[in-house]
Design goal:
mainly alpha, nucleus, 82% helix, 103 residues
Length: 103
Amino acid sequence: MAHYRASESKREQFRRYLEKSGVLDTITSVLVALYEETEKPNNALDFIKLHLGASGSEPADGEALRLELADLQQKFNLLMEENKELKNRLMQYEPSPDDGAAE
């Protein structure tokens, strides 16, 4: 009987720990969100993982970041081409240091 009470006490301590740290509220809210979904997802575990990881960047944010990255990469490439072109034009007007040393 004493063994039963010891394990019950540990369970109660663990439950209080989960409640105090907000884990129970978070899990409950995710499960409620899943319950309230009109179209249930094919993979409930993925739904839970997605909503539990909601404190980080959201998928929509990730897509926006990918689009911004692609846009910035394109601008970078254009600026590198422009830089190369301007360097070539500059070389037409200014002799390189090697040419000056040879004279």
